[in-house]
């Protein structure tokens, strides 16, 4: 290819010429249409990469009558969990050759939600994904006539939505069961906000594990996901508890700091388990035992569910990938058990 050819933006005819096919064949490859031989598809894709060709989204939608654009609404503060879900989903969408138009909102009242939905619908999105940090987000969108499919990333399993989420109940159950297996019988819980569906499911998992072993679940210590709230709850932790399950890693960090200021050693005096496995968790002092959520897998699950809905294929029951326990140095047997 000449220097002059490289200097201008490539078009579909350049791709066709380099691949040795017609421009109609290139169009079929771009739009994932059938009746293209595998070897031909590979040649076209290689030519697209070599020329750095970027097809027009508008032109493609005229051919397929599909915009290949998904609307994504995020609600609440940019906490680790929702932000990681956003990244996981946008990566999965990109791999599926979809564009994502994002609308982020702190307030989840009906008027704000309606404005976000109308903005996305004006971009001809094929579906909307809602990352619902709080119950209010579901309630705000439930009364709006969308006209396109809705996928909700939420853990309550509310009827009327295609819901996808990581199994928050199971993660909390496994975290608490780990502490029980070590010999702890007095296990406190630093919970997330009351209006968080994930926080509610984690409370339920903690309670279920304790109940299964005949142990008492005291009233949870309420936090707001921040290290500061974990610190405050750590200053208040009654002396009878030998272990704490924190509903996220940031509150666990604040909790461990508070215990240190009180002269309470982790894990010698009190064991601590977090939730999320943020990148910093393995560098806490001591490194934090926690529940790891696979947000990349969740993103792929949301995207596959969305495609089933868009393509009107049979949609499986709500998907709930199971998180995993990561054992580090913040948990140990209670002193009385040694």
UniProtKB/TrEMBL annotation:
GO molecular function, one term: DNA-binding transcription factor activity
Keywords: DNA-binding, Transcription, Transcription regulation
Gene3D superfamilies membership: 3.40.50.2300, lambda repressor-like DNA-binding domains
Domain (HTH lacI-type) ranges: 10-64
Record SUPFAM superfamilies: lambda repressor-like DNA-binding domains (SSF47413), Periplasmic binding protein-like I (SSF53822)
Annotated InterPro entries: HTH_LacI, LacI/GalR-like_sensor, Lambda_DNA-bd_dom_sf, Peripla_BP_I
UniProt-listed SMART domains: HTH_LACI
Name of this chain's protein: DNA-binding LacI/PurR family transcriptional regulator
Pfam families noted in UniProt: LacI, Peripla_BP_3
């Amino acid at each position: 290819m000449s220097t002059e050819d490289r200097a201008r933006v490539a078009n579909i005819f350049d791709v066709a010429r380099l691949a040795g096919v017609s421009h109609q064949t290139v169009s079929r490859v771009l739009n994932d249409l059938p009746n293209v031989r595998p070897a031909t598809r590979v040649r076209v894709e290689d030519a697209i990469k070599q020329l750095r060709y970027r097809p027009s989204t508008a032109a493609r939608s005229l051919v397929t009558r599909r915009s290949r654009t998904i609307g994504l609404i995020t609600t609440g503060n940019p906490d680790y969990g929702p932000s990681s879900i956003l990244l996981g989903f946008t990566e999965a969408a990109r791999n599926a050759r979809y564009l994502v138009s994002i609308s982020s909102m702190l307030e989840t009242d009906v008027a704000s939600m309606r404005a976000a939905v109308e903005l996305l619908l004006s971009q001809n999105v094929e579906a909307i994904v809602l990352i619902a940090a709080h119950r209010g987000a579901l309630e705000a969108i439930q009364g709006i006539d969308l006209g396109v499919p809705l996928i909700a990333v939420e853990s309550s399993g509310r009827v009327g939505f295609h819901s996808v989420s990581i199994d928050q109940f199971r993660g909390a159950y496994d975290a608490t069961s780990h502490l029980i297996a070590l010999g702890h019988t007095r296990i406190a819980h630093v919970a997330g906000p009351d209006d968080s569906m994930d926080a509610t499911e984690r409370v339920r998992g903690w309670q279920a594990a304790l109940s299964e072993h005949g142990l008492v679940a005291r009233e949870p210590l309420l936090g707001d996901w921040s290290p500061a709230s974990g610190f405050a709850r750590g200053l208040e932790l009654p002396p009878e508890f030998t272990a704490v399950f924190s509903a996220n890693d940031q509150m666990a960090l604040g909790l461990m700091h508070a215990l240190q200021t009180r002269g309470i050693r982790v894990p010698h005096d009190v064991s601590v388990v977090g939730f999320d496995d943020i990148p910093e968790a393995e560098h806490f002092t001591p490194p934090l035992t926690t529940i790891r959520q696979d947000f990349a897998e969740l993103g792929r699950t949301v995207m596959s569910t969305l495609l089933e809905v868009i393509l009107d294929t049979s949609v499986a029951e709500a998907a709930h990938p199971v998180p995993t326990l990561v054992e580090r140095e913040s948990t140990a047997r209670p002193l009385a058990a040694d």
